[in-house]
Design a protein that fits this description.
Structural class: alpha/beta
Low-confidence stretches: none
Strand content: 15-25%
Shape: globular
Radius of gyration: 20 Å
CATH architecture of the largest domain: 3-Layer(aba) Sandwich
Number of helices: 10
CATH topology of the largest domain: Rossmann fold
Mean pLDDT: 89
Length: 245
């Protein structure tokens, strides 16, 4: 439940549109709802500016569906990351969208898209992580542009998106292999950069550790580095930066 909806409920009570008992029914599960195996945090959007998002990995489908339906009942929208087609089919919610590249599942989201977040991927293999960032950022109400496969092996491809680098408010750069792309982008723009190491590459990629270390050791100052494959975290941070007034 977000702040605007709570204000509307309180305003309806004040204006005698609904009685106190009905308002209490809406509000009684705040700040969280206890499902025994999960305590669904309906207040998180008010405290953090980002609602609770369901991380499906490690949960059984029935648990994910129960949490999703609890959130949907209150907000008519939710986001699931690391989902599966099995979870999607069990939801039985007409508005639900399964995003096959990122394996995210979304319902609703903010309709008004603000600002400009640019997401770059070094290679096609990095797209699943980039797509998770994109789905997350769009769900939270951001205007997102994605440009894929502009890595350092063909660095001339990046120069064709200079205009996008100029107009973006914040840039997410996803790279596997040696993880060089965020440093290159950082040398071309003064915009905030969020680097995401991807677990894509041959043996010494070490499951994303090599690009992680490369990004942490970038000679370009001020690059924020997310955890390996954490497109969701990148989308959330980009949302917060994009919405700074």
């Amino acid at each position: 439940m977000d702040e605007l909806r709570i204000k509307k409920i309180l305003g309806d009570v004040k204006n005698n549109k609904i009685d106190i008992e009905k308002a209490l029914k809406f509000l009684k599960n705040l700040p969280f709802e206890d499902l025994s195996f999960a305590k669904v945090d309906h207040h998180r959007n008010i405290r953090q500016g980002i609602p609770e998002v369901i991380f499906a990995e490690g949960k059984n489908p029935e648990e994910v569906v129960a949490i999703a339906k609890s959130i949907y009942k209150k907000n008519r929208k939710f986001l699931i990351t690391r989902g599966t087609e099995k979870i999607y089919s069990k939801l039985k919610i007409k508005e639900a969208i399964f995003h096959p590249a990122s394996k995210a599942i979304s319902v609703g989201g903010e309709k008004e898209k603000k600002g400009h977040i640019l997401i770059l991927s070094a290679g096609t293999s990095d797209i699943p992580v980039a797509e998770e960032a994109m789905v997350t950022a769009e769900f939270l109400g951001n205007r997102v542009e994605c440009v894929y496969d502009v890595g350092v092996a063909g660095i001339h491809r990046l120069f064709y998106v200079q205009e996008s680098l100029n107009i973006a408010r914040v840039i997410i750069v996803v790279a596997g292999m040696e993880g060089a792309l965020p440093s290159v982008v950082g040398g071309l723009t003064n915009k905030p950069i969020i680097a995401v190491p991807a677990s894509v590459g041959y043996g010494t990629n070490l499951g994303g550790l090599t690009p992680l270390f490369a990004m942490l050791n970038s000679c370009v100052p001020g690059i924020a580095v997310m955890n390996i494959d954490n497109g969701f975290g990148a989308g959330c941070l980009a949302h917060k930066i994009n919405n700074i007034k």
